[in-house]
Amino acid sequence: MNADALTREALAAFAQAKRQAFEAELRTLVEIPSVSSDPDRAADIRRCAEAAVDLFRRHGGEATLLETEGNPLVLGRFDLDPALPTLTVYNHMDVQPANEPEWTTEPFRMEIAGDTYRGRGTTDDKGPALSAFFGALAAREAGVPLNVHFLWELEEEIGSPSFRGGLERHKDLLGTQAIVVSDTVWLTRGKPSTPAGLRGLKGFRLTLETASHDLHSGVVGGAARNPLAELMGVVAAMVDGHTGKVKIPHFYRKVVKPSRKELKEWAHSGFSVETFMADHEIHSLRTGNPLKVMKRIWGRPTMEVHGVVGGYTGPGIKSAVPPRAEVKMSCRLVPDMDEASTFDLIRTFLATHYPDVQLHEEHGLAPFKGHVSGPYAEAVKDAYAFAFGAPCRFTREGGSIGAVKTMEDVLGCEVYFLGLSLPSHGYHAPNENYDWEQASGGIAAFARYFQVVSGF
Predict the structure, then answer these.
(1) Separation CA 445–CA 440 (nearest Å)
(2) Global model pTM greater than 0.70
(3) Which stretches make up the Peptidase M20 dimerisation domain (predicted)?
(4) Distance CA 441, CA 147 (A)
(5) Which residues partner with 112 through β-bridges?
(6) Every domain of the chain and the residues it spans
């Protein structure tokens, strides 16, 4: 195969010939439980990084472990000539925990059912990473004049705490013309979409303690403070649970609303409320208007309650007043919001109205405003259309990838997105899966992308 012969038919044949190899490599990676949030999995994180290094070397590339203050980075390289341009593909090898009771298979034992690959990490983000990897093998076999590097992280699921330091420490090894990320989700199958921005995140916890132990509600009820009930009131004062509107003064002051051009692109993206609800198994929404749903998940900030801790949770009722309670919360942020000023607004509100509620800061990620024009953006659109036979729309991603803005800031190059996952693949959910249609299409899309950008 040569560069002129990188046709859809040739790449489909290449992918089919490599299918068994793809599935074997995916099984190897998925069956390593690289859960970055679990300290007991530190050895598995290291094992996953070493398996990734071995993957590159077995397929004719070079690979290095780049040590950081936390988990290592993996730098894989398919270099042809230092004089040629270099493109870097970013993915992450760490995964979410898999302790949900809804799993129907062992989460860290990959199951193949027809064209579906089931297991934790299959779609987030080991499957897409391997699609890009095999796309690079196709481009190399065809002699595409481009140095292709891969930067694989092992802390993305915990907010990338060591990523910036790792990039700064190893910056001399990471020079590149541009970066493409394959860790995003389409709207639905058959309709490619790519983010023109990501929401940021700011996590925090509220705690309140009013006694040293459980109290008998018959003896002290009515006089004793109930921290669970009080924190519920605090949350209600911060955010309207029915509409989602945040009540913190000035919370929305830095929000940049989506432009008319963006809204027009969203309206033609193929987004369907019914498909959205079915893909995510949602029973009801706050609105049924498609454009309003898109605005809420892509263009508006949020304040969410993730968990309430405290009191008796066993069978029946224990008529006690709990001594302490905790609420776990976070905000999704949009341009031009930032973590520090958002957290300051929350701190000021609580100090003014609920001074004995303790506010605990958790990790945060900055929002990211993406790029929708220029040669690399056009190359993304070309790659999707070539591989999947459908036009790509620029939308936004409601989630966060902390590494994206960090790479632009530290490495001084622009970041683009060529994601392959679908809502039905179950990001962060039980029974996570990936499928051959997206995997093989991704191989073709990346091979095409490498071919196009080699001419820049």
Answers:
(1) 9
(2) yes
(3) 197-356
(4) 22
(5) 117
(6) 3-198+367-453, 200-253+301-364, 256-299
